[in-house]
Batch of 3 targets.
Target 1
Amino acid sequence: MRVAFFGTPAFAVPSLAALVDSSHEVAVVITQPDRPRGRGQKTTSSPVAAHAEQAGVPVLRPDAIRTDAFLAAFSAFGVDLAVVAAYGRILPASLLAVPRGGFVNVHASLLPRWRGAAPIHRAVMAGDTETGITIMRVVPALDAGPMLASVVLPIGPNETSAELEPRLAEAGARLLVGVVDRLAAGPVAETEQDERLVTYAARIERREGACDWNRPAADVHNHIRGLQPWPLVSVSLHEQRLRLVRSQVASPDATQPAAPGTIVRADADGIVVAAQPGAVRLLALQPDGRAAMPVRDFLNGHRVVVGDRLAPVSTP
């Protein structure tokens, strides 16, 4: 099949690479315009654009996709099918009607759970023990199209969203090529989503990085591992901002009665902080202006004693 690919971040790159290496032809890649990225805010291409250019695939970077000019430019490629993987924009019905085979999407959840912009983060934050990839038809409603295939992946109890994402990206790439192969051979069975089971994965916002020690220890731990790599959960210790990078739920023998947010143990094995109920063991953190480090390294240069409090930090 002659395929168009819509995608932008690193998550989408394995899917693009798999299509480029398949028996199908990637005729064009559509991605977000070049933008300032990274700490230096240097204007660079998206990860998808960089891979497409390296593979010799034409790249379009439209500022707007709801224009006659873009519709004409896209139509001129004469593709049979379009694939979407984390493109970052809602596609209009006029665009969806162009390829004779329609659009399919690589979505990082087991639909209908976690429709929306941040399915990986929301699954981890909710404490889900499994997630997966769903290949679905793209329709005008958000992530509501019928499903063509899915694959289930477990989520480890201490796995972060940043660690889970590349596993899902690779699984999505494998699943996608199989679906495109089947579509090229003929009609594929499609399963409608059960609207009764829908949950939504809202876009992550910076303000969600505030830590709430008044929640159960498992919830705090899931919050810490889910908000990675951005914005990270933040606290304040001795008026210094700390971002929490790695944690686990503390064993009962490490838990002592204390007000939420109070440090009940601090040694090379971690900083144990009281939640409500239970406690969380912090294993790695990032002081302002510094790289992330294991707690043992932090303790070598900072005085931390039992009874100190990790105060929530407002993150507007």
Target 2
Amino acid sequence: MWTVLAHPSRRGADDVYNAVLDQVAERLPCRGTVVLTADRGVAATPLLEHLTEWGWPWRRRINGSFWSDRDGIRQGTVNRMPLAPGKALFWPHVYMTKQAYGPVHLALGRPIGRQAYWCVVSDEPTESKTFEEYGRRVDIEANFLDDQANGVQLESSLLRSANAWEHRCGVLAITTLYLVAQGTAVVTQGTRRWVDSHGFGGQSSLKIGWNWVKRALSKGYELSTCVYISPEADPVPAMASKIQHQKPSQLFFAGEVQDAVA
């Protein structure tokens, strides 16, 4: 679902977000659990209240400048909490912002080798797994790349009409579904190397599907006529590079976790 606004800012009004979420909720299957992950740009408390109405749990990253209250004591901004590199804090029943929104649950971590904190707020009790749950949101970055330099070059369209963008997004949604289905079919059939010369999954499913369509049209191959995306895990997960993949994985947090659960 999407909506296009003629707007000077990247962030819209709360009622715009809520209206899109209402449309999403009407189209989701009844079974399954919906967990919404949101970046720091979506920081409105009315949105969180709307999620509660739908019964959706959420994980939302916040800026370090957010204020927090715990046990009736103003703790100050999140980024001023003392935390050693590789350590994490998990606080229940915290009230966020100067408007004291809550209670919510805070997961605060400081990755090794980085100055910036990871601050994730949840409507459910937090633990180390909370960072992993929020981290799944990063998967959408690959879709942004397909929409831009790696794929359809949206930023080069130079459209200025919100109505034209609405229609373009509709075409893009259908195209994305078709190409991703083609790409997953290629992987399932074991012909990925024909269109992904890297051989280690350096391309997205959309890019694989795109290359396959071009190859099929030039070589006379058959295209898949079934738009089906398997729920199974990718048999050949994508890697940034072989060198990066061969490096030992670095733990997000080392040592003991400072558990501040009351």
Target 3
Amino acid sequence: MSLLPWQTVYWQRIDQLIADNKLPHALLLAGHKGVGKRAFAEHLAKRLLCNDPQGSEPCGRCKTCELIQHETHPDLLHLSPEEAGKVIKVDQVRETIDRLHGTAQQGGYRVLIVDPAEEMNISAANALLKTLEEPGNNTLILLVVHQLGQVMPTIRSRCQRVDFALPDSGLAVDWLAEKLQLPPDKAKGYLGLAQGAPLTAYDWKSGGAMDLRANFFGGLADLLRARVSPVLLAEKFQKEDLRLPLIWWQSLLGDIVRIQMAQDEQPRINIDMRKMVDSVAKQANATLVLTLYESVQVELNAIQRHLNPNKQLLLEKLFFDWKELSAK
């Protein structure tokens, strides 16, 4: 995994710690999801495990680099939820720690990447805590964190933190345009939808999420025009992972709120939805829009905390409230 163009300043800091032999035993890589924290962690692991580093970079050719490339290096461990949307369980942590405490099979560093670290439940986090306190020699634990507030204070206090900001938009647009083979204006549009997170924009576009967004927003438009009922539309989407639709919906409501408060003349994020945003902003009660915005946030938080709400009922309530915005 290579460094991304906007990560040079972070890498210089870590590279200096390596050169000074002051690299801590645990780093907490925190910041907005989609800015490349996992890529940074993988690059650092590759640099530490490489048999023939070229200055501050891994060589990419030695046996170690080849093992990492094929995801078979015995001293590079990963810890993530077993399924998307689930937590990291205590048994996973204990099994991984047992491997981490063994002798490095290649004779150098042992590296553990936990991603995302906030998905450890309390038991799992407590199981990792002792290792953070006594990691052993030549051991590095990298915690990739998207929601810092969800990480236990005792975990945070035992790590050196590296905060990743959203990248410069010019660098991000150039990277995204090249990766997706798009004109810069199109890449800029997708970056805006992802609120400045280039890897999120890349994943949405390349992974088909934009089709889901189009279908979801199409359903919202149909509700406003009374072409579908909230119950039927809820049935259509209740089998989906609702995190992305709720994130998109909240950003749409945020555009509406800003126009109603005269902060913006057009959508800041959902430019392609300008017609619907303008229509709702003109006719809807501002208090109702803000209330719905907050309701979407509450339900999104519940899903992200794995509270497993009834998705059919959740969507029905929110869709009825959305439909009410068009009531005369």
